[in-house]
Amino acid sequence: MQSSPRSTGSERASPAVAAPTYEVAASPMSRYRWRVCAMLLAATTISYIDRQVLGVLAPFLQEKIGWNELQYSSIVTAFQAAYALGLLCAGAVIDRFGTRIGYALAIGIWSLAAMSHALATGVLSFAAARFALGLGESGNFPAAIKAVAEWFPQRERAFAAGIFNSGSNIGAIVAPIMAPLVAARWGWQAAFLCTGALSATWLVVWLLTYRTPDQQPKLSTAERAHIGSEPVVSGARVPWSQLLRHRQAWVVAAAKFITDPIWWFFLFWLPKFLHAQYGLSLLELGPPLITVFLLADVGSIAGGWLAGRLLRRGWSINRARKGAMLLCALLVVPIVFAAKADNVWLAVALIGLATAGHQGWSANVYTLASDLFPRRAVASVVGVGGFAGAVGGMLISTVIGLLLQLTSSYVPVFMLAGGAYLVALAVVHGLAPSLEPVHLDVQTKPQGE
């Protein structure tokens, strides 16, 4: 973390309450932190457009190039393997170099990787492009969560995380609108080139505008005080070997390992399910997919809002976080009936309810990292969790490929999805009954000193 700016004499004067009260009253509260949140939302949206384009085009590409189910699962697994490997070091790189440079490195890699899909001609070349994309995109969530920890006090973090995490749904909405239209007009290669250009544009804006709160001159005194209402932790980055000694790190890892694979299934197999089960063409996939991920978007923001609302009502962090997670887990349960739905829109409703539950769950799981660990360790903890989720995704991709190749049935997958979140919540509660935060051997100082 970078050092805070020098304080004036009035800021250090005693009593400490008088000067800040006068300065806050004299300086209207700015909203620059929400501009930062908008940037994180845009990056997450682009990230999910990049990864979702393949899922949307998969039924078409499978017929054109001749993949079978196992070959498609191997392409998906290549992305997840790289994503897992990238998360081994992404959080550490971001904690070491800071959010601005770390995020820029990640999105630069994935921008080039997204465009490289246009050169792919078969299973191996698609797998190579997906592998590179996974390496780059592994930095998105560690960087975004660290930015939230830098720019928001604890009571606002779940809501901010819910907002930027909703970009995963927006991206999944934009992709089925954009990809078929671009592919139909200019060819499937153009769809991948367009998404790469979006991420390259974001990179330029990010480097020109992003600074940490202590270096951002556009902040008002009131907003700076609001952001700095919690202590800033000083010291070097915490290595994974030290983090994994704490049960709280395994809380985040277990929650991600059990539930992230369900989201991977939605992203990469939902278009194939709708095509196989209901005979939807490439252009007909748009409305059902848009509906599913619009519901997911609502769930992402509502899940973060609910936890924050419960905290403002006086609930403890433990009770509020787990209460919100329980509600989200229950929303996923009805998906067990989706594979046997009589019509496409009943299936869409059940799946959309589940994606809403997942995204509300996910917003709270990400916030667990900043609930349980000091700011300087947050990106590394999110990296641990993301690695666990990617490993779980690799396993589920292989299992789904084998199941579909042998049985052509989605019933077991939907049954697995329906119970995963309740199991994950039980594991979280077992590992951390009270969500007691980790107190690392570091010094703290009030922001502004």
From TrEMBL:
Coiled coil: none annotated. GO terms for molecular function: hexuronate transmembrane transporter activity. Its main location: membrane. One of its GO terms (cellular component) is membrane. Keywords: Membrane, Transmembrane, Transmembrane helix. CDD domains: MFS_ExuT_GudP_like (cd17319). Residues 36-436 form the Major facilitator superfamily (MFS) profile domain. Pfam families: MFS_1. The chain crosses the membrane at residues 70-94, 101-128, 186-208, 249-270, 290-311, 378-404, 410-432. It is found in: Membrane. It is a multi-pass membrane protein. InterPro entries: MFS, MFS_dom, MFS_Na/Anion_cotransporter, MFS_trans_sf. Belongs to the major facilitator superfamily. Phthalate permease family. This is MFS transporter. It comes from Dyella jiangningensis.
